[in-house]
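User: Please predict structures.

Assistant: First:
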Amino acid sequence: MKAISDFSFQARRFVRAIAAYGVALLFVLQVMLGLAQFQWNLTEPLLEPNRTTEEKFRSAWGTFFDVVQFVKTQTPPDAVILIDSEYIYHNLMLYFLYPRRLLFGGESVFRANSEIGFILITDGYPDYAVTGETKMLDDSHGLLRVSR
């Protein structure tokens, strides 16, 4: 009976050791891959340290940054802007477009809020009839100044 209990004790000890080594290996791999990604993220800024803040944002955010800059230049700081809630970057817009007031939604939000002065045009949005002046940034992004 003692031999069986010694065997089960050694087996449990072996399984614990394997599990501990496995966790340690996963941790080391995570750190190594994380450092590689960190180095990759720093490579471009370090190669071109004299870039402007705008150039750095554009390289990091791509066309989203262009859309934000377009909306900033075309709207006053106290503007109320309606943005499609399905737009992929709609939460980031809160940060980049402050102090403008942003509302998210569709036609029901537009009809319920008469203070909306602008609508961000994205692929297929707005999908309801709105009258106003349209200024396009590119083929899929623009701004509609609402006239009521």
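Second:
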Amino acid sequence: MVSSLRSTTSLKSVVPVIVPKGGEGKTWTTEVLHCIADLIGASVALGTNDGTNAALVALVGKENVASLSWEADAQRGRTVVNRHLSKDLICIDVGANSDPLDRRFLDFSHGAREAAANAGARYIVVIPSATNKGGGLGSAITTVEAYAAKGSRRFYC
């Protein structure tokens, strides 16, 4: 069954997991996506802008987690996606930051989404929200609004 699913389904997807508030489940969600992809035999590229993301490093090893920085624009997003297009899933754990509309990541994301579309891959934004944490839902809603303003239309919260 698993090998059948893998052979008949195109997984090519770029999935940023983002919400500015800390402790909302970004890393946990990234780990789950990685594990599911691994179970069906899909190849995965993991990236994070939180260089000390111990949980991802513990899961797959430091050499298998690309350290990203957002001192870039849309071109950097295109470059990162194009570099890893041989993988079935490119999953980016976007670390928490204090600015819910961090322009640097929105620009990076715009370029990554463009590169994914050009390669025939899906671009799916995952926005986790811990409902038991103050401000989490508001932060998630603000993130959805920011992505929608940039043209993204597929979200999972």
